[in-house]
Amino acid sequence: MVAPATYTETLSLSKDLTLLGAGPETTIIDAGGANRVLSVIQARVVISGFTLQNGRTNLLAGGLFNSGTLTLDHVVVRFNQGLEPGGLFNSTNGVLLLRNSLVYSNTAQQRAGGIWNAGQMTVLSSTVRGNQALGVGGGVLASRGAVTVEASLIEGNTSDLYGGGLFVGDSRLLVSRSVLSGNLAVEGGGIVIDMSRQPARFEAASIVHNRAITGSGGLQVRTSVGVTLVNSTVSSNRALTGGGLGVQAATLVLSNVTVTANQGQGGGGLRVEENGSVGLHSTVVAGNLDPEAVAPDCAGQIVSLGYNLFGNASGCGLTPGPGDLLGQDAPLDPLLGPLTLVAGLPVHPPQLGSPLVDAGDPTDCPPWDQVGGSRPQDGDRDGSAICDVGAVERPPMWRVFLPLVRGEEVKG
Predict the structure, then answer these.
(1) Distance (Å, rounded) from C-alpha 77 to C-alpha 47?
(2) Which of 41, 136, 142, 348 is such that its CA lies 20 to 30 A from the CA of 323?
(3) How far from chain centre, in Å, is Cα 279?
(4) Is 337 exposed, middle or buried (0-12, 13-18, 19+ CB in 10 A)?
(5) CB 233 within 8 A of CB 213
(6) CA-to-CA distance for 376 and 365, rounded, in angstroms?
(7) How many CA atoms lie within 13 A of 152 on its CB side?
(8) Any idea where the domains of the chain sit in the sequence?
(9) Is the pLDDT of residue 116 over 80?
(10) Is 303 left (phi over 0), alpha (psi -120 to 50) or beta?
């Protein structure tokens, strides 16, 4: 056990080691702006109960460099500066587990304000907040390897280019039970996926309150072999064009997803470019806003896989599938509740009488909804349990949840 104190030094570890501090509030390693705080070189290292701060370098990683197998548990990485990244770099040989930890207020002169991963990385029950990059990836840059984000929060990060919260290159990605909120970029305020030959999947994820100066406030898929969203919510994102989701030369599939309350020209909820491909299944796209009133909910070619609800499909190049509900001149109201925190995730529960209830695919229904409720349920009490459209299943007796107040912390 390392005694509580502030230690002004930098560390380089090349042998297997476990470091236990008294807690990140009291056990601090401060590089004093002289160099990188910590380097782990081809070793197995566990660090728990520390703060790593005030590293600075004109090379890789102001805070931490890892080419070994590293576990950070109850660790805070803050106030570090680097050429790229500002906080942590996990190399192609590195294996990193970030658990119950916080990466915040780190700055990169180029890419990756908080974390750059090129190896194997798992972010579990952790927060990446308030980091900044002049290049891509304000919070996290995943250039290669594989990244899993589970029960975590990526919030309030900024990129002066693409991907305020998360930029994904040629990396496998899984985001589960997590929130991307309040991130900002020129394009792709929440997430950008580009030049990827690996699949990306979002399960029980909430992409909310992100903003882009130009295109795609929530998620922008530029070029990719395939991106899938399941049991997820895309809400309250804003951009000049494509407020919620933007798809360019890529394939995107949405299944049991709620896309609502987003704002942008030419597709307030969803914008599909000429070479993009989007398939929707048991998904609601409604209640979005186009300031020019041309395509409030969606724009571009969309393939219906059935059982969707489009509030206003007038801007969509869409051939309706089985079970689809479409509004045109008179928008169809899905009767969604306000953005509400349920099981740690901001979602829009369907209200009493919602046309989403028991209107999903009767033969293809996931066993759970976004907040862990079982599917299907007999939400309309007609004696037949059928999956609801969208991210959240309404049970026969719906509990009362308070709406999410903007500015309240969302914990993964």
Answers:
(1) 12
(2) 348
(3) 20
(4) middle
(5) no
(6) 7
(7) 28
(8) 5-326
(9) yes
(10) beta
